[in-house]
Design goal:
Keywords: Signal. By secondary structure, this protein is an alpha+beta fold. The protein is about 30% helix and about 20% strand.
Length: about 130
């Protein structure tokens, strides 16, 4: 009888760690809210960019790993990056960088083709250069 009880307890114990630290598919906004609650971070992002984006989030969240490592895990494979603003403040944007291995040379302008750049802000005050 004790052997059966011991066997049942061992089986239950073996499944416990998987349930304590399970990955769940959650909306990215929900994941960021949970990260904010645990780490005390603040995020800035365009609301519509994160609509219908789901990520695998390990739960429960702990402060064992740096928040940056967690953000990389959640964002990079979904096509987003985060920018450090200041301590505990991050901006999340769509990653528009070329993929590794792609040609990153700017397109050459054919001779005689005019190019025009418009600079804004305090440096050029909207003047065409």
């Amino acid at each position: 009888m004790y052997r059966r009880l011991l066997f049942v307890l061992c089986c239950l114990w073996a499944t416990l760690p998987g349930k304590l630290f399970a990955q769940q598919q959650v909306n990215l906004k929900t994941a960021l809210n949970e990260i904010r609650a645990v780490y005390g971070t603040r995020f800035a992002y365009e609301e519509h960019l994160l609509d219908n984006i789901y990520v695998n989030l390990k739960r429960p969240l702990t402060k064992k790993e740096p928040v940056e490592a967690l953000l990389k895990e959640l964002l990079y494979n979904k096509g987003f990056i985060f920018l450090y603003v200041q301590e505990n403040y991050y901006t999340i944007i769509k990653d528009t960088r070329p993929a590794k291995g792609q040609d990153t040379k700017p397109e050459e302008v054919a001779a005689g083709q005019p190019t025009e750049y418009v600079l804004y802000g305090q440096w050029a005050a909207g003047k065409k250069v």
